[in-house]
């Protein structure tokens, strides 16, 4: 039985969050996942400067039907060229039941995409099908089997209900992302200012992600001119526990990153917590206190996360 | 690869290129570039290398370059060639080579 007042020293030294199997220990924060239309050469040439945590080349909704072939070729040429070849990039392929899916997958896996974002992931069975296709392509092009990871986009009532099975369907799944537009359509729901129509889906998807140990992205905020609305939604989903949001406009990146950054005071406390935890570990102590409050593993974990966010984007003003 | 019909790919937006390809009795490449003075020769080299990699020996290829990066030029040439031919894409050939 664990003594809650004297936990093992190891629990005080949880260097990284226990969830997140996509090389979480080495990875930077994953707050912003920005779509870049794969048909747009100019945007592909410049988007990498915006500082998103993850870029997602989009072969699906952003690309007209008659340009699916050229967008696919532009995406793979970008993936194999500087600077994209040295960055973590996901590609949103077309849906598994579309005529574009097979060529999308052949192209982007061979071109070295780190992740494939699968739209309309309604069931674990779809992930199993994707997994099998990825394995076949990886074998054919001598890429390590399993090296292509998956972001499963949850866009329907069935997807929300099956979110846990989807997140656990394959070791390739490193993140699940809630997508709001199709979900609301499927539910017959209407968007509200406070996002109450998404509350169940957000909680369900987030619980599925945490139970499976994968990242979780919130929905796109479509009104790029509504900074106040965007910031309010970010506060909500950050407090719920989302790692970040899917974005469609680079203007939203600094707003999002700022919300996840600690204040200077929060950073200072986080650094005190980590220093105290490391000193306790070195001295073999099982329990510590900082600023008069007992510190345990999850608090050390949160402190390290705050330090990582500050390292990535600095600190925010205390409002 | 045999060029069977006229085809076009790309746009005239800044940072992109338009590639038009038509059947021809030899390989002819005509480039107009907004960055001709600095990169005209490089654009022609990328276009010719891409055509060679795809095995295109007979075609008239007209490129209107608006400052596209090398990979965008390659992509636009590849798309035009694929649209102009009847052969299915061989991903091994297309992605297997040095880029």
Compact overview of the structure:
The complex is a heterodimer of chains A (319) and B (99). By secondary structure, chain A is of the alpha/beta class.
Describe the structure.
The complex is a heterodimer of chains A (319) and B (99). Chain A has helices at residues 9-12, 41-46, 68-79, 101-110, 124-140, 157-161, 163-167, 180-187, 199-212, 227-240, 252-260, 264-283, 297-313; strands at residues 32-37, 54-58, 89-92, 115-118, 149-154, 173-178, 215-218, 244-247, 288-290, 293-295. Chain A is an alpha/beta fold and 319 residues long. Residues 1-20 and 22-26 of chain A have low confidence and may be disordered. In chain A, strand 7 (215-218), helix 10 and strand 8 (244-247) form a beta-alpha-beta unit. The termini of chain A are far apart. Chain A folds into two domains: 32-260, TIM Barrel; 263-313, no CATH class. In chain A, the strands form two sheets. Chain A has an eight-stranded parallel β-barrel with strand order 1-2-3-4-5-6-7-8, surrounded by five helices. Chain A contains 13 helices and ten strands. With 99 residues, chain B is α+β, with helices and mostly antiparallel strands. Chain B has one domain: 2-Layer Sandwich (Ribosomal Protein S5, domain 2), CATH 3.30.230.10. Chain B is 39% helix and 24% strand. Chain B has three helices and four strands; from the N terminus they run E-E-E-H-E-H-H. A four-stranded mixed beta sheet of chain B has the order 1-2-4-3, with helices on one face. The radius of gyration of chain B is 12 Å and the shape is globular. Classes of the chains: A alpha/beta (319), B alpha+beta (99). Chains A and B meet through helix 2, helix 3 and helix 4 of A and helix 2 and helix 3 of B.
Which helices and strands occur, and which strands form pairs?
The complex is a heterodimer of chains A (319) and B (99).
Chain A: H1 9-12, E1 32-37, H2 41-46, E2 54-58, H3 68-79, E3 89-92, H4 101-110, E4 115-118, H5 124-140, E5 149-154, H6 157-161, H7 163-167, E6 173-178, H8 180-187, H9 199-212, E7 215-218, H10 227-240, E8 244-247, H11 252-260, H12 264-283, E9 288-290, E10 293-295, H13 297-313
Parallel strand pairs in A: 1-2, 1-8, 2-3, 3-4, 4-5, 5-6, 6-7, 7-8
Antiparallel strand pairs in A: 9-10
Helix pairs in contact in A: 3-4, 4-5, 10-11, 12-13
Chain B: E1 7-10, E2 17-22, E3 27-33, H1 36-53, E4 59-65, H2 70-84, H3 91-96
Parallel strand pairs in B: 3-4
Antiparallel strand pairs in B: 1-2, 2-4
């Amino acid at each position: 039985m664990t003594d809650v007042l004297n936990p093992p020293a190891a629990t005080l030294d949880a260097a990284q969050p226990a969830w997140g199997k996509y090389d979480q220990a080495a990875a930077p924060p994953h707050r912003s996942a920005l779509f870049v239309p794969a048909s747009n050469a100019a945007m592909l040439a410049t988007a990498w400067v915006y500082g998103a945590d993850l870029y997602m080349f989009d072969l699906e909704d952003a690309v007209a039907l008659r340009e699916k072939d050229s967008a696919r070729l532009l995406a793979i040429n970008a993936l194999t060229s500087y600077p994209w070849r040295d960055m973590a990039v996901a590609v949103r392929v077309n849906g598994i039941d579309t005529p574009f899916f097979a060529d999308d997958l052949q192209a982007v896996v061979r071109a070295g995409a780190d992740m494939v974002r699968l739209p309309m992931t309604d069931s674990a069975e779809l992930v199993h099908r994707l997994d099998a296709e990825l394995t076949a392509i990886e074998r054919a092009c001598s890429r390590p089997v399993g090296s292509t990871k998956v972001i499963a986009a949850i866009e329907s009532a069935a997807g929300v209900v099956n979110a846990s099975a989807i997140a656990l369907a394959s070791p390739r799944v490193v993140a699940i992302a809630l997508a709001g537009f199709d979900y609301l359509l499927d539910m017959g729901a209407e968007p509200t200012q406070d996002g109450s129509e998404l509350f169940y889906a957000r909680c369900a998807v987030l619980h599925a992600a945490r139970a499976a140990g994968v990242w979780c992205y919130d929905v796109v905020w479509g009104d790029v001119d509504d900074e106040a609305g965007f910031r309010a939604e970010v506060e909500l989903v950050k407090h719920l526990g989302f790692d970040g949001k899917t974005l469609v406009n680079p203007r939203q990146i600094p707003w999002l990153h700022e919300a996840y950054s600690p204040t200077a005071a929060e950073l200072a406390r986080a650094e005190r917590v980590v220093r105290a935890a490391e000193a306790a570990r070195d001295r073999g102590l099982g329990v510590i206190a900082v600023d008069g409050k007992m510190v345990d593993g999850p608090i050390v974990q949160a402190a390290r996360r705050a330090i990582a966010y500050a390292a990535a984007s600095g600190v925010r003003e205390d409002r | 690869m045999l060029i069977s019909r006229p085809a076009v790919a790309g746009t005239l937006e800044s940072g992109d290129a338009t590639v038009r390809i038509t059947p021809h009795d030899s390989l002819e490449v005509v480039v107009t570039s907004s960055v001709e003075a600095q990169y005209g020769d490089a654009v022609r080299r990328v276009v010719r290398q891409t055509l060679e990699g795809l095995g295109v020996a007979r075609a008239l290829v007209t490129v209107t370059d608006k400052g596209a990066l090398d990979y965008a030029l390659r992509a636009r040439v590849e798309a035009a060639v694929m649209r102009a031919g009847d052969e299915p894409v061989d991903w091994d050939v297309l992605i297997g080579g040095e880029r």
